[in-house]
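Researcher: Please predict.
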Amino acid sequence: MPSPEQFTGVTAIAKANVYFDGKVVSHTILLPGGAKKTLGLIYPGSYHFGTAAPERMEIIAGACRVTLDGAAVARDFAAGTSFDVPGNSGFTIEVPAGICEYVCSFL
């Protein structure tokens, strides 16, 4: 199922989530019913994130390479693809060039 291009009837949190000196920036949206997502941009570089809850990262534009914690092999993801990250885990995301845009859903 493709990720929606817009979300209707949400509450947007104006304060940005800024990581790695501004190289990763997202905004939180709250959906009706209480679900939470973040919409963000990742600039070129390599970044490690930890997770508390399980997450699904949908790549909206650009491309990245992802290594889940404990995995021996990195996988490439392009626009229109997604990957899941277990709770209490983490992943390293690398963007070789350009900007990777994503929607993160907390499962």
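Model: The chain has a mean pLDDT of 94.
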